[in-house]
Amino acid sequence: MFLETRSRSAANATSVVGKVSLFRFQRAMLAAVLCLLAFGSSFAQTVTLRLDNPNRDTYPTEVGWNVVNAATNQSVTCHPTGSTPPTTVTFNVVPGDYILYGYDSFGDNWQGTRLTIVRSSDGLVLVNGVQKADRLRVPNVCPGPTANGEVIARFTVASPCAGPTITQQPTSRAACTGTTTTFTVASTMTNGTYDWRKDGVVQATTSVPSWTLAVNASSGGIYDVLLRDACNPNTAITGSSPAVLTVALAPTITQQPPATRDVCEGANDTLRIRAVATGRQMQWRFNGVNIPGATDSNLVIMNAGPTHVGTYDCVVSGQCAPTVTSSTTAFNVVFRPRTTSEPNDLVLCPGTNSSMTFTASGTNLTYQWFRNGQAIPGATSPTYAINNYQYSMNGLYRCVATSNVPNPNNCRVTATSREVTLSGYLQPVLVSSPTSTDACVGQRLTLSSDFTGSDLSYQWFRDTVAIPNINSNVLTIDRVTAANAGRYTVRATGTCGLNVTSAAAVITVIAPPTITKNLSAMTVEVGKPINLSIGATDVRTVQWFKNGQPIPGATSLDFTIAQSKFSDAGSYNAIIRNGCGAVTSTSALVKVVEEVIPVAELELAVASHNMGEIPVGHSRTATLASVITNSGTAPLTVLSVTSSNPAFVVTSAPANLYTLQPGQSASITVVGTAGTRGTMAGAITITTDAPANSTGTITLAAEAVLRYDVAQLADFGTVAITTTKTLCVDVTNTSSTDIAIDNASIAGANSDQFAVQSTMPVTVGAGQTVQLCLDFTPTTTGAKAATVNIVSSTGGNSSVNMAGLGDDPSSVVEAANLGITVAPNPSFDAVSISLGSLTGNAAIRVMSATGRTVTSFDVADATAGTLVRWDGRDAAGTPVSSGMYYIVVQHGSTIATVPVTMVR
């Protein structure tokens, strides 16, 4: 058993890869085992006799035995009666048949004593718990043999099963990948199995003494074989000496060069191949011909040009056949175009045709013309045609020729022409036009106009008809007649026939003025207007006189005194002049008499106006047309128009001190803005200078409506930070008309942690309900609050408060899990906070729904069930208002939150 154990240990040592010395040690050990096993098969085996005597202490000396070789009748172990027997006896025997005799010096059937014999090497039970059966008193004397004892058992000791002997060991070798190699072993084993191992790990089990291995790159290592004899495959084992397999790698390409390669002209590039082989050699080829010196895995191509265009591959060879050739690389050089002709600057006459040309040499060229840096749509030919030239075409032009070839490396594949200028001959510029004037009949008239330009010629026109025989910028008429009146222009013409025409000068032919309408005497009431008017021909200036003295500012054909006074009475006349002479009107005697005093009266068209329903947050405009009227006989001055309620704003009304003539009316525009739901009332007060009833009032009314109901608070409760909770609130249309929610937006300190999920706008039918869905995504712990503002031009504006508490999942626990409670909840006054199972120190904060700390207090040395009272007041001692509050209990790293509602 010891030798077999050592044999297995030696075999296990082969699992250490590469430790050839251990295999040599194993081979020596196995040889020793084989020798010992062979020796043991002819000589003694160890056998153990065990004594089982429950009454040994009472009858220790009466038991005796003798084991005798049945063939030789020789005793191999003996114990006499009369002495205390040993519990265990180990002795050696040779294979054969044996007899176990039993003796009893007292004759009482051994008092229950039993004998068991086992083979020590493998624990095989040869005799199992036998005892002397008869009660004869038969003592014995050792050593034997003797036949007078009772035969209590017979047994046979057979030769043990041993591992086979190896006569020819597996041999070390070298092999190429892709081939096969066969390991063989010769031995004395005729029936058994072969465990073929690599680096101590079984690879295959055969029933023949050979194993063929398909060689690959990972096949190299230390190989051996375990021979297991069929007599006992678990113990009859012999291990071979190690054999080393060295793998020679056949040429294998692990990374192919690229299938195609496009390289910029003049650039450097490298083609790469990766391959493995024992004794690896490489040879690059160009168009199938070896490239001298190109025997590295990298082929460097310098200054790529026409001579480098072609196909490249690489042949890999080595110690093992066959050689392998890489895939080919189609190597292409991306060449730049070359300019062959350039365009030139152009100066053109408007409306003419011309062209610019740029050519280049290259492969698959395309052209694109540019003006002022911008590509010209459709200008893709070497020649750019300029048709019907206009000044708008002026600019800097250039053309880019592009080689339309594969260009994955963004090579430069363009050639750009020089930049040329396209411009045109300009039309003459008008500096000054002839001046309109009066011309007296029979006098000399001269008109002139100035221009700048080249090669100018001139043509004058009267009423668009050319005046012949004048090529000058000056026109002279020696004696003016009535026929010379008209509109005079001059046209200047320059290069390319370009021309410009002056503005028209109106020539009016006049004579000395004559009176066509004279003055008459008149009488007016004091305060009434005095209106005097004359008519005349060729009037250029007028001057009125009173009692022979000029009246300042009275220089038109009509003379008016808006409100006459007694001092305005007198004799009036006028003198009319022009460049040809003057004429004086007749004199008119004006008398001013007493007047009847008129009275202004204020009259309002309506006493009240109802603007109807106005959605909260929105406005409605009403125009009270012709609502203010002067019903008196004197002018009425409106001093002010005011509103008693800021919800009603007068946006259009007569300005202060606005005067209404008798019978004249004015309108008022009012804008009503609904602030909160409910009835709106106000009044417009109009104050005037009327001698009686100077003030009037128009009462205003409207109804501010919110045509839908929505919750005032959206409480998200406790939400783990960085997670999102969605909460939807109902929006119910309480009116009989459809409304639309135009928009909903978030505002407030924590607005970034709330969002509107619903898509706007949303239509809500009469009597219907829709949901406004909101998201809460806390980014930090603590109470958070914001407001969602709802805008509806048809239903009114409103808002919903939002509140939530951000919790850290790693530290926040449910209050119920700790037994923390708050009662009563809701509360009208104070609440009691039970700390449940918490012990030690704790901190308590009371926070509002908006995240504000209301008050806080510490609890020291709390015990299970400790009660803490909050009196419902803030840190200043003021009772808190109605609403939602949060009781936050922190105990070490643990945080628990309980919401509580206060009702006042």
Describe this structure as you would to a colleague.
- Helices cover 4% and strands 51% of the residues.
- 27% of the residues are buried.
- The chain starts with a helix and ends with a strand.
- Helix 1 runs antiparallel to helix 2 (20-40).
- The protein has 904 residues and is mainly beta.
- The strands form 24 sheets. Strands 10, 13, 14, 16, 17 and 18 form a 6-stranded mixed beta sheet that branches.
- A hairpin with a 7-residue loop joins strand 16 (221-229) and strand 17.
- The protein contains 3 helices and 84 strands.
Secondary-structure content class: mainly beta
- Quaternary form: single chain
Question: What profile does the largest beta sheet have?
Answer: 6 strands, mixed
Contiguous uncertain segments of 5+ residues: 1-42
Percent helix? under 10%
Straight-line N-to-C gap:
94 Å
Radius of gyration using CA atoms only: 64 Å
Mean pLDDT across every amino acid position: 87
Annotation, overall tally of beta strands = 84
Question: Which range does the strand content fall in?
Answer: over 45%
Name the overall outline.
elongated
Total helix count? 3
